[in-house]
Recover the amino acids of this structure.
């Protein structure tokens, strides 16, 4: 066993042996923690939307059957990973015990959210999900979960509503990577600028010193969200708004060019397939495209850039960048336009 | 129309209008060229392996039917793009006419290979494919093809056999991007180091000053290919050989660590699904993974890195880097071990 194994939670994998916890069929959720682990008293699961939808449809919306199905998955697998969709979600809770060798810096009593997926988090539910109406992916519950040395958790801030903080943390990788890549004076194109990850990425590009930010949205209704009330004295979130179908490469590139593009850095934040070519064509030779959309096709991006003789660096949006949650929460605090967009999109 | 449109060949798109040539159902292969186009006298098509296999199986290997099917696709679509697989291939030929505004720098009489896909290249076949036995994806033929301003073509060198040059050009994006990313003193891990793109990437990493190159191969048979004859005085292509299943993240990472890893730069050159986690775990925090395998899953890479709290930069291997063909051909000339690997793998 190498020194890197225990932090990844390999000792919790029951079946099949030797795989990573995310790939495992079954984990051991024993509440006794190893020296580098943390045990959390869980108060809420936030199921992945695709996972919840699949279960709800499979049981025709029957609350008892939905509760039983989720309980069965957790009891069988030792984690909440939907076997059909493969996806999980995240959880909130309170730190109950922090092992002496845990590198996470958590202390008992802190209210936290996990930023690693439920698909790799050992979990036990003790209340039979009795207080969940099964009508949304928000699952109030009682039980415990285990964090490994290399898990990621963020303390929920006191000054922001918890649902807002969770929504911000859910997409916090995007502004963190945007912030790393955008340089002073760059032109940045944000595709899906009125969405959660898009608006945060626009704010991050501004903070990094972008000279011009072009926000792409699919409709006039979304454009309205990006425009400020005329009375506000805030600086605008984006400098130019482009209403375009991002799946039409030529149409998008022409509109971006008319708005002052192409860009040094293009950030793709819309979960719609077929945006690769438009993003590539909206980017200068020598520029960078960051793909945050899970609908991105690896081969479309690779072959598309080759077919267009486009010398662009293409990044797979990594959801983890050190300090990403803190950076995103701070952007929400200091950027009123982002806060407004989130308040509109998050049920509190 | 923006200034960037004609070089992309949009004026050749017949159906549906407005899409890029690669996405088009039908192109106009008129031999009369625009000022920035080049017309090539085609002598050979090199069909994409997946495309050829699909057609061969659909017609149970009957040569007449296979020839008729390929001719029908080209006549109907104005390009060789298999409607089932979506893939094309490349071609070789001789420059017949170069428009006065062509940026490609080609002159009539030069023997070239196209480095953009047949899926976006206007094409006419005039000999009914009479000299093709339909038994391999190598299709000797007569006809013409059109290159756009932003197409990519490379002059076939006189000092290397044409099949070798074609095989090198087919994977030349990998060493070019590796060469850009690897810095002096880096540790580099090449997954699939005995293959075509892998061996070239190893040679590129060496040229960029990598301090240690760890070559990963799936079997002892492949390891033998990487070892030099004991009499040779060449410097080795890789410093350490690791025999491992790249689909087993923990197993791979442990062996790479024992061989002197993890790496600053990991290059994935094997077309096998499921190598994302192993590549990520074989890379240092702050390092870079370059994915050249078309079997890469975008979401596995993005979620895998997040699940492992891995702060790694993940690049989608772009098949186009300026000067890539020349760089790869030069690596083959100056690296005897790479030349030997290619000679073994290429039928001449």
């Amino acid at each position: 066993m190498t020194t890197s194994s225990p932090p990844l939670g390999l000792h919790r994998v029951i079946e099949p042996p030797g795989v990573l916890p995310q790939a495992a069929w079954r984990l051991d959720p024993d509440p006794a923690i190893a020296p580098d682990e943390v045990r959390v008293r869980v108060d809420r699961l936030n199921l992945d939307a695709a996972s919840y939808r699949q279960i709800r449809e499979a049981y025709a919306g029957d609350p008892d059957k939905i509760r039983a199905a989720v309980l069965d998955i957790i009891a069988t697998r030792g984690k909440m990973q939907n076997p059909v969709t493969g996806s999980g979600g995240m959880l909130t809770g309170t730190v109950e015990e922090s092992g002496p060798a845990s590198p996470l810096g958590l202390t008992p009593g802190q209210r936290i959210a996990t930023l690693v997926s439920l698909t790799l988090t050992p979990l036990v539910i003790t209340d039979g999900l009795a207080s969940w109406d099964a009508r949304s992916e928000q699952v109030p519950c009682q039980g415990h979960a285990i964090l490994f040395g290399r898990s990621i958790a963020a303390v929920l801030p006191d000054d922001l509503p918890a649902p807002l903080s969770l929504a911000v943390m859910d997409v916090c990788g995007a502004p963190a990577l945007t912030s790393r890549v955008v340089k002073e004076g760059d032109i940045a194109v944000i595709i899906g600028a009125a969405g959660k990850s898009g608006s945060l990425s626009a704010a991050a590009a501004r903070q990094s010193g972008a000279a011009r930010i072009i926000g792409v949205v699919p409709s006039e209704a979304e454009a309205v969200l990006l425009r400020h009330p005329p009375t506000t004295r805030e600086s605008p979130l984006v400098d130019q708004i482009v209403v375009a179908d991002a799946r039409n490469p030529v149409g998008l590139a022409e509109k971006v060019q008319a708005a002052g593009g192409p860009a040094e850095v293009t950030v793709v934040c819309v979960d719609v397939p077929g945006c690769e070519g438009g993003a590539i064509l909206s980017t200068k030779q020598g520029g960078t495209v960051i793909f945050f959309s899970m609908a991105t096709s690896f081969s479309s991006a690779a072959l598309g850039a080759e077919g267009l003789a486009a010398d662009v660096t293409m990044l797979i949006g990594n959801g983890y960048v050190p300090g990403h949650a803190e950076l995103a929460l701070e952007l929400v605090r200091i950027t009123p336009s982002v806060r407004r967009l989130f308040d509109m999109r998050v049920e509190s």
User: Anything to note?
Assistant: Residues 1-5 of chain A have pLDDT under 50 and may be disordered. The radius of gyration of chain A is 21 Å. The CA atoms of residues 107 and 294 of chain A lie 34 Å apart. Chain A touches chain B through 57 residues (CB under 8 Å).
